Amino acid sequence: MTLLADLLSSVFERRYRRDPSRPTDARPLRELVEALMGTAGETSGLALSQDILSGFAAMDDAQKLDFFRDVARGMNIDPETVRSTLDAYERDPSKATYRAFASAAEPRRQELIRRLNALPGATGALVRMRADLLRLSRGDPELEAFDLDFRHLFASWFNRGFLVLRPISWESPAHILEKIIAYEAVHAIDSWDDLRRRLEPADRRCFAFFHPAMPDEPLIFVEVALTRGIPGSVQDLLVEDRKAIASHEADTAVFYSISNCQAGLASVSFGNSLIKQVAADLSANLPSLRTFVTLSPIPGLRSWLAAEGLEQPEPDQMSALAAHYLLNAKATDGAPYDPVARFHLGNGAIVHAVHSDADVSDKGRKQSGGVMVNYLYDLKKIAQNHEKFATAKTVAASAAVKTLAAGADLSKSQER
User: Fold this and answer.
1) Where are the alpha helices (DSSP H) in 369-408?
2) Of the listed ranges 183-192, 229-238, 305-314, 401-410, the one predicted with least confidence
3) The 291-294 sheet, strands edge to edge
4) Are strands 252-260 and 220-227 parallel, antiparallel or unpaired?
5) Whose CA is closest to 107, among 69, 137, 145?
6) Least CB-packed of 7, 270, 323, 359 within 10 Å?
7) pTM greater than 0.85 (yes/no)
8) Sign of CA dihedral 403, 404, 405, 406
9) 262: number of CA atoms within 13 Å, CB side?
10) Nearest Cα residue to 35 out of 116, 147, 137
11) Per residue in 33-86, pLDDT tens?
12) What is the pLDDT of residues 296-346, one digit of tens each?
């Protein structure tokens, strides 16, 4: 699949590559956008799309913000037309009245994004454009609504059916390895030697999702350690002088780092599919594996402790407080307060074990006082756990974690 995608991409790019000596259209981007929306010709549309995307990429933040606001306002829905077409559909439901309503209810800016994406290689540029929109739109209702158009289209373009799972190894192309180093968001890779230790040994794996339209850009990747037993320290997994084991000797697969790579694909979910696919593939290829767990940070723990007046808990209470936090601290929608917990519990995992002094790095201490958690993926119960979490926000946990949470001392917060 990857070879075919790369071949098709190469053919399209050769067919439509512009002569570098050809001058670009010097009209303002807003005029180019209207010209693109009005053209019916394939060649002229591709040329306009390239000029728009190239022009946008050359803008500074102030110009990009003006462009976003111009498109958001000028290509929005007309509420009156939406109301009138909906009234017509209610009076006379038919193919014609429904088409009229659907057309009125879709902002023209969605069609703009589609037309821009017709240019070979444009998908990555549009992902970067959305990253700029997310960065610049905070607190602006019109721009946040515009972002929903990107999100709506990206959810279709990047659905699981289009994604390609590739293993990443020490033999992978250098430009891919450089991006793994750059995009690692959980446990920083501080050198090529560090990367090699994570990829080359027989008991290490790495997998990433790619999209055929962005064959050289990982969307999300997971680093896996094959171990005997469930680990309780990330430093033990990453230590320089550790002794590797043969892959067939491992009974546990540990997902110790999951990193989203594209800021422009925020809220487009890949992680649940990635973990389940990797677990299924590893299980098929390594029958000795019996357990699939994460070793995850608890990024919201420190801020919750501060809010509860427990900035300086007793060291022997950290794991108990962390367990209580994971099971009982809730956001306004009733889901767990911790974002990593929401992710894994939503995927059908359970809170399996909590470990103190599991990440003694500066980042690990700052985020969660060094505490980490194992989320267990029981392949036979994932669907059942997911359903309970989705319908009732039920936090599935082992008996050991429940007992640990029950022993948490919250007296300092109660005295406030």
Assistant:
1) 382-392, 399-406
2) 305-314
3) 164-167, 204-210, 220-227, 252-260, 291-294, 372-376, 350-355
4) antiparallel
5) 145
6) 7
7) yes
8) positive
9) 27
10) 116
11) 999 999 878 888 999 999 999 999 999 999 999 999 999 999 999 999 999 999
12) 999 999 999 999 988 778 878 999 999 999 999 999 999 999 999 999 999
Residues 257 and 186: their CA atoms lie apart, in Å, by 6
CA distance 345 to 347: 5
Put residue 220 in one of left, alpha, beta given phi > 0 → left and psi -120 to 50 → alpha: beta
Stated length of the chain = 416
- Secondary structure (3-state) at 221: strand
The helix/strand/coil state of 98 is: helix
Closest C-alpha to 398, from 356, 349, 359, 358? 349
What would the two tokens of residue 41 be?
Answer: 């010709």
Residue 170, C-beta contacts closer than 8 angstroms, at least 6 positions apart: 177, 195, 196, 199, 200
CA 82 from centroid of its chain's CA atoms:
33
Band of pLDDT at residue 20, cut at 50, 70 and 90: very low
- Distances in whole angstroms, Cα of residue 212 to Cα of each of 124, 176, 178: 11, 15, 20
The rounded distance, in Å, linking the Cα atoms of 180 and 166 is 13
Cα–Cα distance between 354 and 371 in angstroms, integer? Answer: 7
The answer, yes or no, to whether residue 386 has pLDDT greater than 80, is yes
3-state secondary structure 252-286: EEEEEEEEECCHHHCCCCCHHHHHHHHHHHHHHHC
